[in-house]
Design brief:
The protein contains 14 helices and three strands. The chain is mainly α and about 425 residues long. A three-stranded antiparallel β-sheet has the order 1-2-3, covered by helices on one side. A hairpin with a 5-residue loop joins strand 1 and strand 2. The protein is flat and about 80 Å long. It starts with a helix and ends with a helix.
Length: about 425
């Protein structure tokens, strides 16, 4: 159990954070490859004894190792070639077409460079390589040391499998509820933090989902499948935002042009090459803080949508597996049953659930007694969360959108009046 948690934390937290650092602290073709790997990560299954050895998880980690190793070799070979040419520091010349082309692929000279820039431009590739190798080795060691249960142990633990799975399901459902609330918050943030034609899709989708849920209607499987399209749209949007930070992109579409404002293309860094400053240093534009937060909200929304969609699509499979599996021991001397009150009980000396059988409670009634207030509170929060999210959304619209577009003021007060009326 502990090994599985450690492996999941390394794969789901540490590795994505390292990839994210290689993406947001520099903008070139090598970092774009890490961006694609970062977007693939939530789709890959979590580590397990099977997946880490011959499954998609092991292949994904090995792909990250291979690509980061190629990036590191490219840096080493490029520096070796520059040293072999002699007169290091003369080629390539900054802001020439050769210098810009090499810089676009992440290859730079290291003469008179700031140590922070050297670490940012070259050290991140070695950081990704070492971190990924560490994740792979740790996961393999963790699952190699996992004890294999004996036949007798599996038979004795079979009777306890059902209540354990029920507790895990309750925990999963609670986490999914938190995820659904965060999904609405991230969807609202992606729609209003930096208004544009592209982000208006998030805004309209949020209004539709929140209104539908606040009306007491349920979202079916079509809604779950529709979030797959939302994940693809969000990934493409983040890729476009990232590509706009690369060299040549801001020359094709000017930062202050009408096209850039309508499409929500924000130049977070000044990628135009100039002899007035070292092109190897990163220069951030003095944009509003919402312009920097909105891409991170979009990325968090993508990850959350991927995890929620995977969980929702796997629910029918889990239910079918539970219906097919029997949770009784082979001699039927001891098994699980349900009493007339609906509690899960442990039956002995006979078939599970037979009349007159001696039964022993497994603590379900005590669990209900102490957990009922918490469950009631969570249910109350769940019913009111959608309305509260709508109110937060109206406040965000008032602060972010109307300050930029004053003609929305009358429309805002009219919609807010209708919202209060329907409440």
């Amino acid at each position: 159990m502990v090994n599985s948690i450690v492996s999941s934390c390394l794969f789901r937290v540490v590795l994505p954070l390292v990839l994210l650092a290689a993406v947001i602290f520099r903008f070139n073709a090598l970092s774009f490859i890490y961006l694609l790997l970062l977007l693939i990560a939530p789709v890959v299954p979590g580590p397990s004894p099977t997946s880490i050895i011959s499954g998609h998880t092991g292949r994904y980690i090995k792909a990250v190792i291979s690509l980061s190793c190629i990036s590191c070799l490219a840096h080493v070979v490029f520096q070796a070639v520059l040293l072999s040419l002699g007169d290091y520091g003369k080629f390539p010349v900054q802001c020439t077409w050769e210098g810009r082309l090499f810089a676009l692929f992440g290859l730079h000279r290291l003469d008179k460079i700031h140590p922070v820039d050297a670490m940012r431009l070259m050290g991140l590739d070695f950081l990704v390589l070492l971190s990924t190798v560490g994740v792979l080795v740790t996961c393999q060691k963790a699952f190699d040391t996992t004890p294999i249960p004996c036949e007798g142990d599996s038979e004795s633990d079979q009777s306890r499998e059902f209540p354990v799975r029920k507790r895990k399901k309750r925990t999963s459902e609670f986490l999914v509820f938190i995820g659904e609330v965060l999904f609405l918050v991230f969807l609202a943030g992606a729609g209003v933090l930096h208004p544009s034609l592209i982000s208006s899709v998030y805004f309209l989708l949020f209004l539709f989902i929140a209104t539908w849920l606040a009306s007491g209607c349920k979202l079916g499987r079509i809604y779950i499948l529709g979030r797959i399209a939302l994940a693809v749209y969000t990934a493409l949007y983040f890729i476009v935002l990232y590509l706009y930070q690369l060299d040549y992109a801001q020359e094709l579409i000017q930062v202050d042009s009408l096209e850039a404002r309508l499409l929500g293309l924000v130049g977070l860094v000044d990628s135009t090459c100039s002899i007035n400053h070292d092109s190897r240093s990163i220069v951030y534009r003095p944009e509003d803080w919402t312009a920097y937060v909105q891409p991170l909200i979009v990325l968090a929304l993508y990850w959350l949508v991927c995890f929620l969609t995977r969980y929702r699509l796997s629910e029918p499979l889990l239910d079918d597996d539970k219906n097919r599996k029997s949770y009784h021991s082979t001699d039927l001397k001891e098994g699980l049953a349900i009493d007339p009150n609906g509690s899960i009980i442990l039956s002995t000396d006979g078939e599970a659930g037979d009349e007159g059988t001696e039964v022993t409670s497994v603590g379900i009634m005590k669990y209900r007694k102490y957990m009922f207030p918490l469950i009631s509170f969570i249910g109350l929060v769940k019913k009111g969360s959608y309305v509260a999210t709508l109110i937060i959304m109206m406040v965000m619209i008032k602060y972010f959108m109307i300050s930029r577009f004053p003609f929305f003021d009358s429309l805002y007060y009219m919609s807010f009046t209708l919202f209060v009326f329907f409440l």
